[in-house]
Amino acid sequence: MADHIKVRNAAGVWTVRAGGAVLGESRAALELTEGDYPPVIYFPREDIAMAFLDKTDKSTHCPHKGDATYYSVVTKSTTLENAVWSYEAPLDSVSRIEGHLAFYTGDGITVEEI
Known about the structure:
The protein is mainly beta. The chain has strands spanning 5-9, 14-18, 21-26, 30-34, 40-44, 53-62, 66-74, 79-86, 100-103, 109-113. It has a 7-stranded antiparallel beta sheet with strand order 1-4-5-9-8-7-6, with no helix packed on it.
């Protein structure tokens, strides 16, 4: 694993909400810290209501994690474009985040420990 990236179990119960809807709640979330960036919570895909997510054409590449795919969050009142990302086949050094989703917070999305 790149020395500046750490993946560990996120203590407690975590929730993600968008547009007034609970998208997911998990006791099995992961916390990824990378350098000086704020920690990012990754939710197991099975703990997220995937019916609210639409896969988009966007993709990005991180030299430390691999290729990310993106999803928009679709709620009754809005669509939050490319608000979710996932590393479908992450590099071996961060393989624990495979099958997990992370969310950009703000603009109607909250991720918090409950």
